[in-house]
Design a protein that fits this description.
Elements lengths: L3 E4 L2 E4 L2 E3 L2 E3 L4 E5 L6 E6 L3 H20 L2 H17 L1 H12 L3 H25 L4 E4 L2 E9 L2 E5 L5 H14 L3 E5 L6 H12 L7 E3 L4 H9 L6 E5 L2 H12 L5 E4 L5 E4 L5 H9 L14 E5 H16 L19 H16 L3 E4 L12 E4 L6 H4 L6 E7 L2 H9 L6 E5 L3 H10 L4 E4 L18 E2 L4 H8 E8 L9
Parallel strand pairs: 9-10, 9-12, 10-11, 12-13, 14-15, 14-19, 15-18, 17-18, 19-20
Antiparallel strand pairs: 1-2, 3-4, 5-6, 7-8, 8-22, 13-21, 16-17
Amino acid sequence: MSDKIVVGGVPVDTRHWIGGERVASPDTFTDHSPIDGAVLGEIARGGPAEAAAAVAAAKAAFPGWAATSRAERARILHAIADGVEKRLEELAVVETTDNGALLRSHRRGVMPRVAHNFRFFADWLLRLEHEAFETRGHTNHVSWDPAGPCVLITPWNAPLMLATWKVAPALAAGDTVVLKPAEWSPLTASLLADIAAEAGLPAGVLNVVQGYGAEIGDALTSHPDVRRISFTGSVPTARRIAESAAANLTPLSLELGGKSPLLVFADADLDLAVDLAVEQYDNAGQVCLAATRFLVEESVAEEFTRRFVEKAGALKQGDPRDEATDIGPNIHPRQLEKIDGFVQRALAAGARAVIGGHRLDGQYYAPTLLTDVSQDSEIVQEEVFGPVLTLQTFTDEDEAVRLANDTRFGLAATLATGDPARAERVTARLVAGTVWVNCFFVRDLQAPFGGSRQSGVGREGGTWSFDFYCDLKNTVTAPNGWNNHG
C-alpha cells in the first residue's frame, strides 16, 4: 500500500500522525468519495496499539507544551492559521471530494473559518485574565491550568471545521491532543497534521489517529492518562463514550444530535421565513443545527408552503464541485439507506410528501418536505440527518412552544416573527442551546455553544472552552503572610 494518495491533485498521507512521525498500521479501511463512489484510497486502520501510542506521545509532550508561554502558543496557532490560508484551495478540494459538501462553501466560508478558529483562540488566550478578588483580607487568585492530554472525536459532516473548533482551544489552553476524525471523511485531518508540523508545533502536541468506531475509540476514551474528551456526534455513541470514560471520571464535552424547530408566526416576513426554511437543506441536510421541523402558524401555512415549494424547486442538485450546485450528495450509502428508511416509514404511516420523498441516482436524495405528520411520530421525534423536513401548524404561542419543546433534544431553535415582544416571550420559553431570531447559523466563537437535554453536555466557545480544557485553580493567600516566618 502506498503511504500517500492523490485527491484532486493534492497528495495526502494515509498514515497516522503520532509523536511527530507518520505511523502505518497493518490493517486499512477504504475511503470512498460520496460524489461518485470512487475509491480514494486505503487509510491506516488503527486500534488499541495506535491509541496507546498516541496517548503516550501526548502525555510525553504535555509538560513542555504546558510550560510554553501564552505568547509562544499563540504565535504557533497563528502560524497554523497561516498554513491553512496558504493551502486553502487544497483543503477545500480534498474536503469536498472526501465528504461531498459544496466546494464553493469550502472555499468561501468553511476553510476561512478553520483559519479563524486558530486565530480566535490564540487571541482569546492572550486576553484571558486571571481573576483576583478579596475575602476577609485574603487574596483569591483564579488561574486556568492546562489539564493534560485530550481526546477529540469529530464528525464527518464538517470534518476540518469541527475538528479545529476543538483542536484550537485545546492547544491554546496548553493541552496536548489526540484527534480521531470520522472514518467516512478522514483526509483533511491528515493535512492538518502536516500544516501544524510546518508551523512549528512540537512533536506529540497534536496526534492524529484513524480507525473505525469502537475499534480505536474505546481504547482512547477509557485511557487513564486522558484528561479531557470532547465528542461531536450521535447520542448512542455519546452514551458509549460516557460509559468508557466513567471509570476514570474523565470530564466530557458532548455536542450531540438535534431535532430543532423553525417557528414561523403570522406576523413574520414570509419571504425571510421561506429563505430561512430553504437554508435548512444546506450540506444536503447534514447539519446538526438544522431546523428540520417547520412549525407554522395556521393562518399563513398555505402561503408559506406555496412559496417554500417554489423556492426549493429552484435548487440545483448535483456534483458539489460545480459552482452552480446547491445540494450535493449524502456522505455514505449507509446514511442514504437510513434517510430513505425514515421517509418511507413516515409515508407508510400517512405522511404526505409535498416535495421529494425518494432517492436519486448515486448517493443523492431529493430534498423532501413531509406534512400530515403527528407530533409523536418517528419522523418528528428522531434526527434524520439528511435533506428531510417536516411541516406542522399551530394556532397560538402556547401551542407553538409546546410543539417546539416536545422532543428529547434541545440543540437549537429558529424563530421568524415581526414582533420583538413576541420574540422575547417565545425565546425565553424555548429549550435550546442556541436560538436564532429572524436569522440562521450566525455563530460567534466567543458565544457559548452546546445543547440541552440529549443534545449535549457542557458548553464550548470563548472562555467556556478554556473552562473545559483547563483545570481551574483558586489560590488563596493570607494577609501579611510573607512576614510570618521572617
